Amino acid sequence: MHVVVIDDTDTNIILLKALLARLGDVTCSTFMDPVEGLEFVLSREPDLLIVDYMMPKLDGLQVVEAVRAKPSLDDMPILMVTAFNEREVLYKALEKGATDFLSKPMDRVEFSSRVRNMLALRKSYLMLKDRAVQLAVEVEKATALVRERERETIYRLAKSAEFRDPETGAHILRMAHYSKLVGRELGLSSSTQELLLQAAPMHDVGKLGTPDHILLKPGKLTPEEFEVMKKHAAIGYEILKGSNSPMLQMAAEIAWSHHERYDGSGYPRALKGEAIPLSGRIVALADVFDALTSNRPYKRAWSLDEAKDFMLKQRGAHFDPGCFDVFFGHWDEVVQIHHRFRDEQPSAYGPS
């Protein structure tokens, strides 16, 4: 344990060093200049400070006050030594943050006992502090493992929908990264951007409840068939809702709202404008853009420019103008994402 002694009297310094040496396992730094001693304490953060009250330049109360002003030294014990028995001085010392005090002339047995107790408490505090740090690290590891398992579950659920749908694994990767791009440029926090990236692939999980003859039909759906198809948004919400997981909460929100249109002509609730959750407005844009630029059994892939021109006509109607502008305002990055996740690549939900 490291003890610092600040006292302007030579004989007191010699005595205190000798008493501390008898305790064993203690290193001692001494200062007769209180300013130098205070600077040392603030920079080195020892385990115990023993400080005299009456000193030039700074008295003991001023030293204690300066030490306690540093948050990391809140729990370091301070022993004030004073020749005064006046209660007012003692009260002030305690008010400023002194842990204990001794009056001169010091009783050697009393000094050794008090210092030994203070250092024992300091050791216990440091051990608890280290243990708290270790526990925090362990909790973070466990939380990270839970998040990873949750992420894997989400992806596998998205894959299960994908196996019933002609869309490819690369589609959910592209639209997820398009969504994160929009979220980033709209100023969403990094944690919300990650939620978008991880939750967006769940947008069509409700297609698990869509009959195959409708889901896999190569031609245009009849009005009756389209009504059945539209139910997948509400089915997806029912599958995902009610979770304590922020990721699943966002996924439920996206599943229910990504087919809404900005002008209120979408489904399943005909929401309009900002009544549509932002996550749904973002994913609606990303999903349509990638659907247009991807091959399907019933259509060829449009070029990126063709999709851009077509969607421009839907700005403010189908798509939120703010989401639209930031997406197409970062065209180079959109193109990079499109080329990065090609349909022939294995479908693996990697990090951004």
Explain what this protein looks like in three dimensions:
With 352 residues, the protein is an alpha/beta fold. Helix content is 57%, strand content 7%. Strand 3, helix 3 and strand 4 form a beta-alpha-beta unit. A five-stranded parallel β-sheet has the order 2-1-3-4-5, with helices on both faces.
Give Rg in angstroms. 34 Å
Work out the strand percent. Answer: 5-15%
What is the count of DSSP helices, taking H or I runs of 4+ residues? 14
**Termini separation:** 47 Å
As laid out across the biggest beta sheet, the strand order is: 2-1-3-4-5
Low-pLDDT ranges: 345-352
User: Share of helix among residues?
Assistant: 55-70%
Order of helices and strands: EHEHEHEHEHHHHHHHHHH
Number of strands: 5
Give the structural class. alpha/beta
Whole-number average pLDDT?
88
Most strands sheet: 5 strands, parallel
Q: Which shape, going by the Cα principal axes?
A: rod-shaped
Summarize the structure.
This protein is α/β, with parallel strands linked by helices. Helix content is 57%, strand content 7%.
Top keywords for this entry?
disordered C terminus; alpha/beta; 352 residues; rod-shaped
Fold blueprint:
Elements (H helix, E strand, L loop, with lengths): L1 E5 L3 H12 L5 E5 L2 H11 L3 E5 L7 H9 L9 E5 L4 H10 L3 E4 L4 H55 L6 H17 L4 H10 L12 H4 L7 H18 L5 H12 L20 H15 L11 H9 L8 H8 L2 H10 L12
Parallel strand pairs: 1-2, 1-3, 3-4, 4-5
Helix pairs in contact: 2-3, 6-7, 6-11, 6-13, 6-14, 7-10, 9-10, 10-11
